[in-house]
Amino acid sequence: MIRNDGEEGAVQAAGQLARQITAEREARGWTQATLAGRAGVSKAAVSRIERGEMSPTAVTLLRLAGAFDLTLAGLLLRAEGGAGEREHERLSRAAQQPEWRDPATGYTRRQLFAAPTHPLEAVQVTLPAGASVTLPARSYAHIQQLLWVQSGELRLTEHRAPDLTWDLAAGDCLGFGTPCDVTFENPGPHPCTYAVFLARR
């Protein structure tokens, strides 16, 4: 599983992602430069990620997944061996739910549910106090999302003309999906945990 349990777990996770990103690129017959151009990241970053020298941030990983026409969940699950190889792909037990941690922000993403035979995905995110992450419009191109704040405070800004900002508290739900860059910010003194439910359009 893609877990970041200490230094050893982080190294293993980076290695799994590096191999999968390389495999996805080569399966499409792309060079590193081609992938970099499609994802909007530098060729040097692609090279370092594939060699396992750099752990991608949440933004970089979303850009790479989008270039492959995959959701972030799809890319992470392929890296860990694929949801289809589980004994019961309709059942997601807590011990089987992969986690991934953004090395830049401490943003932690837990894949609650994803299966190739089901149209919905569920993710749980924990955003540390004071942290923010801006996810690119491409990551919303083919999906609709419903966000449910479970604890803490979340400020979500949809970057359009003009920007639209939502201040959310525990229990609040927000549906969104029109492609645009989106900033998730925790303005509070405590970690914010929220769940996101995704459906392909």
UniProtKB/TrEMBL annotation:
Question: What CDD domains has UniProt attached to this entry?
Answer: cupin_XRE_C (cd02209), HTH_XRE (cd00093)
Residues covered by the HTH cro/C1-type domain: 21-75
Under SUPFAM superfamilies, the record lists: lambda repressor-like DNA-binding domains, RmlC-like cupins
Task: Give the keywords, sorted.
Answer: DNA-binding
Q: What is the superkingdom listed in this entry's lineage?
A: Bacteria
Origin species, per record, is Deinococcus sedimenti
Protein name, entry field: XRE family transcriptional regulator
